[in-house]
Amino acid sequence: MTTAVELAAAVRDGTTTARATTEAALAAVAANDRELHAFLHVDRDGALAAADRVDALTSQGRDPGPLAGVPVALKDNLCTQGVPTTAASRILEGWVPPYSATVVDRLVAAGAIPIGKTNLDEFAMGSSTENSAFGPTRNPHDHGRVPGGSSGGSAAAVAAGMVAIGLGSDTGGSIRQPAALCGVVGVKPTYGMVSRYGLIAFASSLDQIGPLATTVADAAACLEAIAGHDPMDATSLDEPAPRVVAALDRGVDGARVGLVAELLDGAAPDVVVAVERAAEALEAAGAHVAELTLPELRLGLSAYYLIAPAEASSNLARYDGVRYGLRVDAADVQAMNVATRTRGFGDEVKRRVMLGTYALSAGYYDAYYGRAQRVRTLMCRAFATAWERCDLLLGATAPTTAFELGAKTADPMAMYLSDVFTIPSNLSGEAAITVPFGRGDDGLPIGVQLLGRARAEPRVFAAARVLEAAA
Amino acid sequence: MTATGLETVVGLEVHTELKTATKLFCGCRNRFGDEPNTNVCPVCLGLPGSLPVLNRRAVELAMAIGTALECEIRPSIFHRKNYFYPDMPKDYQISQYDEPINVGGHLTLPDGTVVGIVRAHIEEDTGKTTHVGETGRIHGADRALVDYNRAGVPLVEIVSAPDLRSGEAARAYVTELRAILVATGASDGRMEEGSLRVDANVSVREPGAPFGTRCEVKNMNSLRSLQRAVEHEAERQAAVVAAGGTVEQETRHWDEDAGRTVPLRSKEEAYDYRYFPEPDLLPLAPDATWRAAVAASLPPMPRARRAVLVERLGTVTDAQRDQVASVVADDLDALVVAAVDGGVAPQLALARVANEVAALGDPHRLDASGVVALLAMEARGDLSATQTKAVLQRMAETGEDPDAIAAAMGLEQIGEDALDATLDAVIAAHTDEWARYREGDEKLAQFFVGQVMRETGGKADGKAVVAGLVRRR
User: Which chain A residues touch B50 with a CB distance below 8 Å?
Assistant: First the structure.
C-alpha cells in the first residue's frame, strides 16, 4: 500500500489529487468497515470538502502542506468542530463539539484529510476496544481477535489500509499496545510535546496524543505536523516540534541500548524471542546492547491504577447531564446527576470512577493517591539512573499477540496486565515507540518497544527505523 | 461581648473578584451585568477536552494583594476541589489549597488593631444559578437557570486569623480590606454586586479561655448585614451556652429579613472535596524580579494616605477622622488634596468630598478639576453651601463645568450691599420676631435666614445672613 509520505508527494507534485486519495480512503472504509467497525463516524462530506480545499491550493500553486491529501483517522476522543465526538460513551452520544482539538487543526493545516472518528474503549479506558458503548472493533489480521486498545479503531483503520495515518491517545499504552497487536507503528511522544487541547481527558498527567502509521517515516511526518508548543495547553512544552524526519536515517551506531528485564517479564515466549531478535538487529547496526534491570518498573501497574482512576474520577465529573450529552430526567438535580451517570457510563468507567474517588477520599488519600505519586517519583528516578548508562531502552510492547474477543472481558485484572510494559513511560512522561517486529507462533504481529528519555524522539525514531528495516 | 458576658471571636473569609480584563483560565471577558451566557467559551464552560491556562494579570493582582497585606509571596500550586454543583461547569473548582501564593500577612485597622492574615489564595468563581418558580424559593422552584458568565472569573480569597472580637470590628476589618483592595486596583469592592463576598467564622468563649466551636455564617451582602449577622450569631451561641448546651459546628445562612442565622449544613454533612493537585496547570513560582516589579507598582495604601490627609488638615476632630477614613476608602482623597492645593480650606474640602461628592452615584466619573473649581467658588463666597450642592448634582448629571451650570441656574450669590438691604427690609417687616430674637430666642435666626432666602431666591449665603443678624442685635 502507499505510505503517507508517498501520497503527499504525489498530491504535491500533481500526480494525483487529494480528491482521489480521499475517495479511495472512503471506498476502503465502505468496503471494510462493516466488518471491522474501526469507525464510529465517517465524515464523508467534510473529508471531500477538505480534499477540495487542498486541491484548490495546489492548483493555485500554493503549498498544500507536508501531509497534502493524506487520509487520516481520528480517535473519537479528539474534539472535531461540527462532527460528533463521543469518546465511545452513551453519555456523549450526539454531542457535537463547537471547537476542534489543536492536533486536528494542525493536521488539517498540514493538508491531511480527516476521514472520520475511530472507535475506542469508552473514555479510553481499556486495552481491547471492547469497552466501547457502540460495539467492539475487530483486528484486521484475525477478525476473531481484538485490535487492542484503547486506540483500537485507529490501529485497525491503519492496519487495514483504510487510512495512512491514525491519531490515538496513550495514557497507559493505548497507542502502543493496539499498534503492536495490529502490526503498525505507534508513538507515545514525550509528555507535553503534543498539545492535549481538545483531547477528552482520561488522566491528564498521563494522556498524550500520538500517531499510528504503517511506517516509521509516516509516523515521523505526522508527529512533526502535530507537535510543538500550544498556548492553549499549559503543560505543553515551550519548544517547537522535534526534527524527527531529518533524524530518521541517523542509525544507531554507537548507541547504548538497555534490554530491560522488567519489560520482558511475563511476556509470552514468542514475544521474548522477537525482542531478542530486535536486540540483535540493533547490535548488527552498531549499537551496544546490555541487559538491565529496573525493579521499580514492577510497581508501575499498581501506581497507575491509582493515579489514572483518581484523575479520571475528577475529569469525568462534568458529565452530569446539566450542559451537554445525555440527560436522564429525575425529581431534582442530584437525582438527575445520578440517573444520567448511571445510564450513561459503562461498567469499566464506573469501576474506575469509583476506584479513583476512593483513592482521593479523606483518610485514604495518603495511603493510595499519595503513595502512588511517591512510587511515580521512584520510577522517574529509576529511569534517570538508566539514562546515565543507556541512550535507549528496549522491551516488549505487549505481553502477547492479539487475544480473542471476549477472552478478558470478565477479568479486569487480566485486561489491566496488557499494559504492564507500556505504563512506565506514561508515569515518567518519556518518549516511547512500538515497531512491528516479526510474528508470533499464531502468525499475528508482534511489536517491540523502544523507550527514550524526554525529548529524545529523534534518537528513538532513528532506532525504530533500524528495526523496521530489519524486521 | 455578648449579653451573657462571653467574648465574641471572629475570623473572616473574604472573596474578591479580580478586576482583570479576562477570566482566570480563558480569554472570555470578565464583566458584570452582561447578557447571560455571552462571555463563555469551551474552557469556562468546561467542555470535554478544554484546558485551563493561567491569566498572568490575575497572578499579578493576587501578588499585589499579598504585598499590600504584608504577606510572604511563595511558590504555589493549584488543586482541584471536587463537588457536584450545576453552576460549576467542570464539577470541580480550581483553587489553591495547602500551598497558596500568599501566606502570613497583617492588616492594621484605623484604630491600631492588628489582624493576622492567614492566607490569600487564587481560585475561580462559579456560575450563577437563578431558581425560577411561583414561590421564588429553591424548594418548589419549577426550574433553575444558570448563567456561566461568572464561571472562571478570578477570585482571591483572603482568610483572616480569628483576631476580631465584635461585629463592629468585623465591619471595620472589611471596610479597611475593601479600601486596600480598591487601592491596589485588584477589585472594585462592590459588595452589593457580589464582587466582594464575606463569610464569617464566629464563636464565643469565656474571656481568656480556648476558642469555642465555630459556625460559618454566609450570605451577608452589606457591611451592615455583616455586623448584624456576627452580633446575632454570637448572641445565639451565647444563649446555647447559657442554656447548658454546646454549639454544633455547622454552616449557617444569614436571613437578612428575619435578622437571624439558620442552619445550612452540619459538619456531618460536610463535603469530602477530594482535593488533589491540578494536573492541567504547572506550579506557580513568581521570581524575585516579578515580585519586586509588582511591589514597586503598588500605589500608597489607605493607611499611608490617611496619614497624608491628616497632615494636610492639621488638627482633626474625631468626626473628621471618620471623614478622612471614608474618603480614602472611597478613593476620593486625591480630590480633597487637589481642592486644598487649589486654595479651598482643608475642612471645607474634606466635608464636601466626604459628604456630598461621596454620596453621588459614581463620584469617580466626575471631572476632578471641575469639582475643585466648584469648591473654590464656594470657598470664595461666590456660591452658598446650598448652591454648591445643587451645582454638584448638576455636574454629576450633565458633566458640564460648574461656571456654566451656576450661570445657567442664575446662582451668582448676591453681593454684600444687596444682602444688607434685603435683611433690613425683612427685619422691618417682622418686628415681633426681631424683638424676640433680640431677647435671646436663637431659633428665630433660622426664621430670618429663611425669609432672606425667599426674598433672594436662595442666592444669599446663609452664614452671611446670620452674621448680619448678630451685627444688628
Answer: 99, 197-198
Cα-based distances in Å from A289 to A278, A379, A389, A452: 10, 22, 11, 14
Q: What is the pLDDT of residue B44?
A: 97
Residue B351 has pLDDT above 70, yes or no: yes
pLDDT tens per residue, range A78-103: 999 999 999 999 999 999 999 999 99
> Mean pLDDT over all residues of chain B?
91
Burial B102-118 (b: 16+ CB within 10 A, else e): bbbbebebbeeeebebb
Q: Is A98 on the interface with B (CB under 8 A)?
A: yes
pLDDT one-digit tens code per residue, A375-409: 999 999 999 999 999 999 999 999 999 999 999 99
> CB-hemisphere CA count at 13 Å for A10?
15
- Distance between CA atoms of residues A149 and A168, nearest Å: 10
Q: Which helix (H) or strand (E) segment is B137 a member of?
A: none
User: Which of A75, A358, A360, A365 is the best mutation test for B, with the most CBs of B within 10 A?
Assistant: A360
Residue A284 has pLDDT above 90, yes or no: yes
Does residue A53 have a pLDDT over 60? yes
Q: What share of chain B is helix, strand, coil (3-state, %, to 5)?
A: 40, 20, 40
Q: What kind and span of H or E run contains B366?
A: none
- Evaluate if residue B271 carries a pLDDT over 90: no
Q: Give me the active site residues of A, please.
A: 75, 150, 174
B264 pLDDT band (50/70/90 cuts)?
confident
Residue B140: per-residue pLDDT: 57
**Angle at B148 (CA atoms; ends B146, B154), nearest 5 degrees:** 135
Which one, of B250, B261, B192, B201, lies nearest residue B228 by Cα? B261
Closest approach of chain A CAs to the CA of B55, in angstroms? 11
Calculate the average pLDDT of chain A. Answer: 97
- Subunit contact A99:B51, Cβ cutoff 8 A: no
| pLDDT at residue A461 greater than cutoff 70 | yes
H/E run at residue B139: none
What does pTM read for this prediction?
Answer: 0.89
Is the CB of A197 less than 8 angstroms away from the CB of B54?
no
Cross-sheet strand order for the sheet of A39-42? A39-42, A113-118, A71-75, A165-170, A208-213, A185-188, A431-439, A445-452, A392-396, A256-260, A288-292
Domains of chain A with CATH codes: 4-226 (3.90.1300.10)
Those of residues 441-460 in A touching chain B at CB distance below 8 A are: none
Mutation target to probe the B interface, by most B beta carbons within 10 A, among A79, A91, A320 is A320
- A322 chain-B contacts, CB cut-off 8 A: 86, 146
pLDDT at B245 over 80: yes
B51 closest CB neighbour out of A78, A197, A323: A197
By Cβ distance, the residue of A235, A333, A362 closest to B86 is A333
Q: Please write down the HEC assignment for all residues of B151-171.
A: CCCEEEEEEECCCECCHHHHH
Q: How far is A45 from chain B (nearest CA, A)?
A: 24
Measured distance CA(B465)–CA(B449) in Å, rounded: 6
Q: Which of B92, B276, B282 sits opposite A317 (nearest CB)?
A: B92
**Mean pLDDT of the region B198-204:** 97
Assess A358–B contact: CB distance below 8 Å, yes or no: no
